[in-house]
Amino acid sequence: MKSLQVKLSVLAVILGMGGAFATVQHRAFSDRKWSFDPSSGQYTDITGQTQGIEYDCDNASSVCTATYPQGQDPNSNAANPLSVETGLFN
After folding, report:
1. Domain range list for the chain
2. Which helix (H) or strand (E) holds 89?
3. What's the farthest any 2 CA atoms get from each other in the chain?
4. How many angstroms separate the CA atoms of 80 and 69, rounded?
5. Could you say which of 6, 19, 20, 45 is the most buried, measured as most Cβ atoms within 10 Å of its Cβ?
6. Spatial strand order in the sheet of 31-37
7. What are 27-82's pLDDT values in tens digits?
8. DSSP string over 17-82
């Protein structure tokens, strides 16, 4: 009986850990996310950073971040971003 209790406890821990990993959001890094500095007019690569943790976009009508395909550098070609987030990067 004690062996069964230990086995069930171990199984519960393993299933709990598996569930935690299964619910984590995984991001593909095939596209790159860039922040825009309006004072310099330059973009900075922030791929992999999370809004609200590593950066924020304050309310504004300017470009805060933009997502571009992997091979496109917006500092040399800012045309056709995949997505744009408005605000002021900080």
Report:
1. 2-89
2. strand 83-89
3. 70
4. 9
5. 45
6. 42-45, 31-37, 57-69, 83-89
7. 556 899 999 988 888 999 999 999 899 989 999 888 899 999 988 999 999 999 99
8. HHHHHHTSPP--TTEEEEEEETTTTEEEE-TT--BTTTB-EEEEEEEEEEEEETT--TTT---S-S
